[in-house]
Amino acid sequence: MFQFDEETRTQSIGPDQFSAHVHPNWSIGANPNGGYLLSLAMSALHQQAPQHPDPLSVTVHYLRPGLPDQPCTIEAKVLRTGRTLSTCRATLVQDGAARFELMCALGDLGASNATSTLSIPPPAIPAPEDCLPRSAGQQGVALPLLERLDIRLHPEETQAGAAKRAQVTGWIRFKDGRAADARSLLLFADTFPPSVFGLLGPVGWVPTVELTVHIRRRPAPGWILGQFRTEDLADGRMIENGLLWDSTGQLVAQARQLALVRTPG
Amino acid sequence: MFQFDEETRTQSIGPDQFSAHVHPNWSIGANPNGGYLLSLAMSALHQQAPQHPDPLSVTVHYLRPGLPDQPCTIEAKVLRTGRTLSTCRATLVQDGAARFELMCALGDLGASNATSTLSIPPPAIPAPEDCLPRSAGQQGVALPLLERLDIRLHPEETQAGAAKRAQVTGWIRFKDGRAADARSLLLFADTFPPSVFGLLGPVGWVPTVELTVHIRRRPAPGWILGQFRTEDLADGRMIENGLLWDSTGQLVAQARQLALVRTPG
């Protein structure tokens, strides 16, 4: 069993109730990564609506940081299920307090790679072997999740404060060889450095208020290419847009988050 | 009292429970507009968390079409409230069935128009008097909501199927002179024609699966400029991005929705 599957296992403990363990291997600094916590809830929801295996639209509001290396319970509920969609809600609780609230639509993206009527082509960037590994030093916090994920960044975007715009581009895959699937794209959508890093310098932890991810198709095997950009930052609140493409160049996910950033000055 | 305020009035009928009437004046074809239904829930939530008057991030999943000219009940609940944010949930029910599920973060955008560190400038388009009113004929369905909203579209984008890309740009305001506020931007984010209209021709009703709107600042008085664009349409599912600016050119909202479209051919 691969690390991601092992460390996002959830167990049914009653109607709409699941238990799991928040593993410490997916943290940014002292906090479990939001995309990882989200993956725990998706694992529970998958047991609730197995006929709709793919997350089409997932929104999560983070209420409090998660607690690493501690148990959690997850309430995971199907609100409505139809032929093509299941609409669901989930809450992850640790130590008696909700850590996030999630709402999503699950469906079936199928194996088909139908031609897109409209799509967004991937940017041209250096191959993974010519990119630079994401490192803790770049962001100024410890990054346990780099033991689990191989993240390579565009060499021209890795110098803090040196960029002309708030953009991060790079490659991502699981370190242990697990193939990316629709569910893991939710994780990948929240594990690149904050896109404001190159523009503003080390900004530490950029807490996400709300994250929405749309999965557009199941990814082909291989590296996932990600590009994250912030074009709207005001009053310490930023909107970051992310795009993910698979190794065949197909757009596989779009993400957007509202996050807090302490702007220098 | 202005029409929008009158027709989104909600009344407390018990703990976390409100009643309202779904007025028939805000429909697209036979269905109440999603942005209007959403506004009913925001009105209820405003009573629950008056200290945080502005919606910062709102996500709604539409489960079934609303029923025009019928009563509704709204469950509106504050999940967590802190110094700067209240995280809330709401469900709108008609005829015993949930019509949508909503999750949002409310806050206080203040009167301040602090300078943005990063922002997106508005496009240059003809003045409202040189744009064309949105009309029912353009989309092939009756549009009662045009009795309530004044919508003027870029003259080069109003011919069905003639555009080179899926984009709709135009102006919007209330017909009765009510000034736009943060809450009404949620409505404005969902009342332009589908952006695929110019590219694909009349597409009828484009049902929204999920809509997320981020309000970035309180708008100045005057027309609101909106631009909506679809760059990702595959397997009958499109991601449409919207931007709204106020009359001073400040970005006031960003929106994204997952919608279903029957592509011709």
Describe the protein.
The structure is a homodimer of 265-residue chains. Chain A is mainly beta. The first copy, chain A, has a single domain, classed as Acyl-CoA thioesterase, double hotdog domain (Porin, Beta Barrel). Helices cover 13% and strands 41% of the residues of chain A. Chain A contains 5 helices and 15 strands. The first copy, chain A, has a 13-stranded antiparallel β-sheet. In chain A, strands 3-4 form a two-stranded antiparallel ribbon. The model of chain A has no long low-confidence stretch (mean pLDDT 93). Chains A and B meet through strand 5, strand 8, strand 12, strand 13 and strand 14 of A and strand 5, strand 8, strand 12, strand 13 and strand 14 of B.
Q: What does the radius of gyration of chain A come to?
A: 18 Å
For the biggest sheet of chain A, the summary is:
13 strands, antiparallel
CATH fold type of chain A: Porin
Query: What proportion of the residues of chain A form beta strands (DSSP E)?
Result: 35-45%
Largest interface: A-B, 46 and 46 residues
Q: Indicate the multimeric state.
A: homodimer
Order of helix and strand elements from N to C terminus of chain A: HEEEEHEEEEEHEEHHEEEE
Name the CATH superfamily assignment of chain A.
Acyl-CoA thioesterase, double hotdog domain
The helix/strand class of chain A is: mainly beta
User: In angstroms, what separates the terminal alpha carbons of chain A?
Assistant: 48 Å
Average pLDDT score of chain A: 93
